[in-house]
Amino acid sequence: MNIPAGEQLYVTSFEEIVWGAALVAITMAMHGSGMLSVMRVNGALGHRFQTNPTLMKGVLALVLASWMILLVHLIEVFAWAGFFWWKAAINSAHANPSLCYYFALNEYTTLGSNYNLVLGWRLLEGMISMAGLLTFAWSTGVLLTVAQEFQEQQLQLLKQKREKRHTQHHPGASPPTGQSH
User: Is residue 87 part of a domain?
Assistant: First the structure.
């Protein structure tokens, strides 16, 4: 095997695997508590808005859940960025906490970066992307649940408006049952 001049041979180390697994575990634990918080806040808003639900209140709850999910992801990236800064893992003479965060966010989202990690930490570039994929999938499930609740609420409100309109135009008539004959 010929290695080009000036390039070192990369060998995955046990330390790299252990730190990567620990960072993925930290990320997933943070995400779990964050997603539970999103569901709790959404449930509390749903309960509060239950007496007088409106389209705007439903949209507000959906937007708030989206912002909370985004914030959870941004906080999770700090764990990786902090590690990269602590271990001087970014392959740049100008590495600083901001660059470490930028790099970590780009790798977490699988966008990629112009930077990379030093030879001894390269495995973490793939591991942070896998953590991002796992947490984005989880977030999608949570956001889908929130959106589904919103849609069901809006459909129920629409049905109630139609029934009210039907009884106003046809006094004495019973509301439609939803069955066609």
Answer: yes
CA angle 158, 161, 164 (to 5 degrees): 150
82: nearest Cα among 153, 23, 42:
23
| Helices (H), ranges, 109-122 | none
Name the phi and psi angles at 115, rounded to 5. Answer: -100, 165
Q: Please, are residues 121 and 89 in contact by the beta-carbon 8 Å criterion?
A: yes
> Domain span at residue 37?
14-159
Hey, what amino acid is at 161? K
Q: What is the pTM of this model?
A: 0.82
Does residue 170 belong to any structural domain of this protein? no
10 Å CB burial of residue 91 (0-12, 13-18, 19+) is middle
Count up the domains in the chain and report the number.
Answer: 1
Asked if residue 124 lies in contact with residue 117, where contact means CB atoms within 8 angstroms, the answer is: yes
- CA distance readout (Å), 131 to 107, 110, 159: 10, 10, 42
Q: Report the distance separating Cα 100 and Cα 94, nearest Å.
A: 10
Residue 3 placed within a domain: no
**For residue range 87-122, what is the model confidence (pLDDT) as tens digits?**
999 999 999 999 999 999 999 999 999 999 999 999
